[in-house]
Design a protein that fits this description.
It contains 13 helices and 31 strands. The strands form six sheets. The protein has an eight-stranded parallel barrel with strand order 2-3-4-5-6-7-8-12, surrounded by five helices. A six-stranded antiparallel beta sheet has the order 10-9-29-30-31-28. It has a six-stranded antiparallel beta sheet with strand order 17-16-21-18-19-20, with no helix packed on it. Helix 4 runs parallel beside helix 5. The longest helix is centred in the last third of the chain and has 21 residues. It starts with a strand and ends in a 10-residue tail after the last strand.
């Protein structure tokens, strides 16, 4: 029997509670510093509140400390780690190996920023005491299986949300255009900008296209394959997303996972509680650049979003006719006033709101870009978002109660679905009941009332109903028992895999390259102690001009039908340019990888 965890992002305390309410088995949040999303930082107090809220359902809270550290930050980073542990965090997600040397009494998870792509790399992290390894988003199912065969550590993978086009932790693109670094939690996302694709002579092949912008990941249909490949945790991306996104996407994946668990006896969920929602989840109605399985089934074209890096939403139909104040579509639709729509045009994405819908006539706020044949997408569903806002979602833990009435007292025992039990008693004399059957019915009704607690009492057994107990007494006992049960749940020990580094693991390569970003002495000592013979100065601390600044499983050549393995028409070096930023594309066809080298400040040589 093994667990399958649904792991949700949480921007703040409200998002954390929403994620738990809608079925997450765990959440991941950032503290005030050292997280890879600096805009999603939280106070220690809010972390503690989120942890307490999660723990009552047996859910966990993982905190992100997944940036590289400088020497003068080590003391502050360790202090923050220990504050997060004291606040109730269950795991730390880290990139910098300095954390491995701090003897922290908590699970350590190796962030995807570590660059987890190979069996030998993941095996090394396992032997160094990492309880979990978070895999690179671009791995194929076969590559995941090979890692699983080589290791026993828990494996976590992303199943939904934005994709980093570069291998995580090995991308320096942001630093080529600004002082902001993705490895320090401040990525400026230059991969979402428009670029011109040019050849070595400077001729433009494609102009103004978002050549590095890929669609978003959605692996809902692949969950069982991933389970069988050995994944422990399904991770939803989005620590900057709002509560609506959390409610919708978490609910959707909860339902999909539960459908699988209902027919599998070898897999269970690690937390408890049933989430009841009042809307039908639909991931197409939350932020999405279009769904993609990315490289899960091998390297392939068709994953890019050249026309726009923004959310286009769900396809509604094609413009059939233009009216005096609006347009009609070629198919039935359910657009309504307040919806947001967009159209992809030659000038880019155009958007507007719907003012009114009268029969087949749709009246937008603006007609900009709306012509016959234009494809209409809805990127804001007003009625759906109202249903999210108004949904009284609740997560409850099922429990059973046993009430025993005696002449000289009574006892109430409540046991939840995990077997945690609490008992309250009263020593007092009870008179005979006038109607034992009516007394039993009254007792059940009083004990079943769980109010605004997290519990749902589904079965009440009453014995001794021939004695009369006042309804007020039964209500008092029920409240006391549920308070004690909740306290017992919060105090129940949680399973943690706090593993030590034996020091015997050997780093699988002789050189720790500059792309590994060893930026402090503790991390340097870690690698030396594990057998590395050379540690290159971190590229994070150097100028990027002339350096490889991205490695990617995505390939522009493959995307435009010019793969070097397929007798392409385009020969010679290729470059992408945006303003003064210029990058040479390099291709490792053996490994099917694309690299970007920073050539900013250089210009192509004109052929004579």
């Amino acid at each position: 029997m093994r667990y399958i965890e649904l792991l949700s992002p949480a921007k703040d305390l409200d998002a954390a509670r929403a994620a738990i309410d809608h079925g997450a088995d765990a959440i991941y949040m950032g503290g005030t510093r050292f997280g890879a999303r600096q805009a999603a930082g939280n106070s220690i107090d809010d972390i503690a509140r989120a942890a307490e809220y999660a723990h009552q359902y047996g859910a966990r809270l993982h905190t992100t400390l997944n940036t590289v550290l400088y020497d003068d930050e080590l003391l502050d980073a360790e202090r923050m780690a220990r504050e997060l542990i004291a606040a109730g965090a269950d795991a730390l997600i880290v990139q910098d190996m300095a954390f491995r040397t701090m003897n922290l009494p908590i699970e350590l998870h190796a962030s995807t920023q570590v660059g987890n792509t190979t069996p030998e790399g993941v095996k090394f992290l396992e032997e160094c005491g990492f309880a979990r390894v978070i895999l690179e988003r671009s791995l194929s199912l076969e590559e995941i299986r090979k890692i699983r065969q080589a290791t026993t550590t828990e494996l976590e993978c992303f199943v939904h949300g934005a994709i980093c086009v570069g291998h995580s932790g090995r991308c320096f693109l942001s630093r080529t255009t600004s002082s902001r670094s993705g490895n320090r939690g401040e990525c400026s996302q230059p991969c979402r900008l428009p670029y011109d694709l040019k050849d070595e002579a400077g001729r433009t092949i494609l102009a103004g296209k978002h050549l590095l912008s890929v669609r978003d990941m959605e692996l809902a249909d692949e969950l069982e394959l991933l389970m069988d490949a050995g994944i422990t945790s399904f991770k939803i991306e989005g620590r900057l997303k709002d509560v609506r996104y959390i409610k919708n996407v978490v609910s959707y994946y909860r339902q999909r996972i539960d459908n699988i668990l209902a027919r599998r006896t070898d897999i269970i969920r690690p937390s408890v509680g049933t989430s009841r929602i009042e809307f039908t989840p639909d991931t197409a109605k939350s932020f999405t650049r279009g769904a993609s399985t990315y490289m899960l089934h091998g390297k392939r074209a068709g994953v890019a979003s050249f026309d726009t890096p923004k959310a286009i939403g769900e396809y509604i139909g094609e413009v059939k006719s233009i009216l005096r104040q609006g347009f009609t579509l070629d198919k039935q639709h359910n657009l309504s006033a307040g919806d947001g729509i967009c159209i992809i045009t030659r000038e880019g994405l155009k958007g507007t709101n719907i003012n009114a819908v009268n029969g087949s006539a749709i009246e937008p706020n603006r007609m900009d870009g709306i012509v016959v044949g234009a494809k209409i997408y809805r990127n804001y569903d007003h009625r759906f978002n109202l249903s999210l806002d108004n949904s009284r979602s609740r997560r409850t833990v099922e429990a059973e109660a046993k009430l025993e009435l005696l002449e000289q007292g009574c006892t109430l025992t409540i046991t939840d679905e995990q077997g945690i039990t609490t008992t309250v008693s009263r020593d007092m004399a009870f008179a005979p009941a006038n109607n034992a059957e009516k007394m039993a019915v009254t007792a059940r009704r009083q004990i079943e009332k769980s109010g605004d607690t997290i519990f749902s009492i589904t079965n009440v057994k009453v014995s001794g109903a021939e004695y009369f107990a006042p309804a007020s007494l039964l209500s008092e006992m029920r409240r006391e028992a549920l308070e004690k049960l909740l306290a017992a749940r919060k105090a129940a020990p949680r399973h943690h895999k706090i593993l030590a580094d034996s020091g015997e693991a050997r780093y699988p390569y002789s050189v720790v390259t500059k792309y590994e970003n060893v930026t402090n002495q503790r991390a340097r000592d870690f690698y030396l102690q594990h057998g590395a013979t050379e540690i290159e100065p971190a590229l994070e601390c150097q100028p990027t001009q002339g350096e490889r600044v991205m490695i990617s499983s995505y390939c522009i050549r493959r995307e435009i039908g010019e793969c070097l393995k397929q007798n392409p028409k385009l020969r010679g070096d290729l470059y992408i340019e945006h303003g003064s930023a210029r990058y040479r594309l390099e291709f490792d066809c053996r490994r099917c990888l694309m690299m970007l080298t920073d050539c900013s400040g250089t210009q192509p040589q004109k052929k004579r």
